[in-house]
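ok so for the tutorial part 2 we go from a plain amino acid sequence to predicted structure tokens. step 1 is just haveing the sequence, like this:
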Amino acid sequence: MSGEQEQAGGAGSRVDNRLTGGTVHGHVVQAGRADITLRMSDPAAPAAVAVTVTPPLGLRDPGRPLRGREETLERLEAELAAEPGAEGRLLALCGMGGCGKTAIALEVAARRSAAGCRVWWVEARNGPALEAALRAVARQAGATQEELERDTADLLWSRLARLDTPWLLVVDNADDPALLDGPGSLSAGTGWIRPATGPGAVLVTTRDSTRATWGQVARLHLLRPLTGGRLDAAARILRDHAPASAGTADEAHALAARLGGLPLALRLAGTYLEQANRTPPSFRAPATPTTYTGYLRAWEDGLDRLDPGHALARTWAMSVALLEQRSHGHARALLELLAAFADADLPYTHLLTPDRLADSGPLAALDGPAIWQHLTALAALGLVELLDAAPDTPPVLRMHPLVRDASRTRGTEADAARLLIATALADDSGDPQDPQFWPLWRLLRPLILDAFQRADAAGLTEEALPGLSAAVNMAGCHLMAEGLNAQALAVFEAVLVVERELVGATHPNVLVTRHNRALVLRDLGESTQARAELEAVLAVKRERFGETHVQVLATRHELACLLYVEGDLAVARTELQEVLAALRRVLEDTAPQVLATRHELACVLGELGDLAAARAAFEEVLAVMRERQGTTHPAALATRYELARVLREQGELAQARAELEAVLAVERERLGDTHPSTLLTRYSLALVLRDQGESAQARAELEAVLAVETELLGPDHRDTQITRRSLDGVLRMLEGR
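step 2 — the prediction. this is what the tokens look like for a chain of 737 residues:
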């Protein structure tokens, strides 16, 4: 099946449409992509958070150990080593921003890892990233993709409870504990985050220490600034980061007291002094402090009663002033722009290009080298972090939440939204449903959705809102590609509300979103609703564009695919033939939209028993795909699978087996052994093995597939029953020898 792309066609997911008799009838594919509109005003529609759950232990610096936190570490270690008891083990490390909660959690994670404990690290800065990370933990704990489509929170804790070796889940930056509720309630022990049982433990870092938030399920550990008897440790933090020339231990002690013993403020102050001292005297501004005493004096001027929060903001302001003195005159504007994005990783190499900053006020004057110089200067003073890219993933920028809060100003949200729109709609961002672009779209998606939610507050003009809606539509398409269909449905429905208000219910852009919504409904199993929506969209499109417009053909294509899945093969064949003929009149025969329809028509021909015609069609489509996309593109894999099925039906068992084994190798690497598409290929391969007389191998493969299907789908599901019947047949063959 295909979705709308530039005109029609699209890439998407396979549909397991097994019928009876132990034969697989399915692996239907969208050979193009779901409908993505790039210009909301264009009637033709051209052309869904990357996460890691590995503890970031590289952030620990053995040369700069934790100071003043020995007692806290001992208490945490003791509780983590103790028996959990019936109530389970959930520790919340609470304190104001910048007091070193993450540093302590990192130290705990390092010690537990060294002791042989399995440690997961989850960021809770925003909902999408949190959910994606917890899904990753669930997968690593043994959950399958099919299981993750439902009851994810319960499934996560069920899987963790089955582990028999020590483990620790760290949830960092849970400053909005409401995100931890998920489908239930954190305080009731039914949320995303719950007390761990058995050999496991959970450690959460958060600013919220109220008992009402945590209920009785968590043991709270309050973390306070390094004041009073721990000021010596605070002064040591300053001295760890500042140069020896900055002053004496007593002077560092005095500055540490003035900064309220807040570890982040201490680190930033020490880094400021280190950078200031590295600047040649002839290039320093006259008032630039280079010592503890000078820094303290700058603080004292007119600032008699600063609390740590104000102190921290003042530290950042001084750091920005230092950058401006060092010819980074746009540092403040850049920091304010970065603060306007969601609290999530920013793919800065895509967002902050000169062409996309061209409409961003003073930043429009920056070229590529100047942008990079400003970013690295901000990072050098600890105002942002520039993280090296993981393999095949764009590098990202992170900003501490307190820096973001202190730097956010009115009016910058609209500029941030415009950058997101330009990035999402750019050619180099690619198709959000193409796996090669998923790493970028996992980063863009939470930023776009946050900007959409804050569009009113950002004061976006009506001219910008359609572009933002288009970007959100693409984020929804990425959610579809990742299999997060319920989330995608919510996104498309939210976009529809805005679009209908802006341009009316029958505007071409609204039809694009309705088309995508119908595809999500189809993937959710709501075929009746999906068909009704597609028929309604088709009626409006026919009235507006005529019978053979590419958008009309895209919707006709989807309706024909629904007919095929539902078993109405003759009507589906006629409709697909008409769509194909119309597409060929306006597009090249090798266009993705044409290939999508040719693929689907070949599937129908195979189901109708015309194996020769189906084989010829699949081979022709695959030849084009091999040249245009390669043989491991999802669309090409689907066509190779369908071709292998036809080869088996024709008795070409060796060829069918080779093709299925090649497809299976790619699917196992990308999707895992228990993904529905992988299971479908494994099932078909087992049938080929049986036909070749390798009954023992066929039995082993069918038993493996049956075990997964029984667990995922239940013993009475149609697919489980088909696999069981095939296995019974193989067993009878083995008994007859």
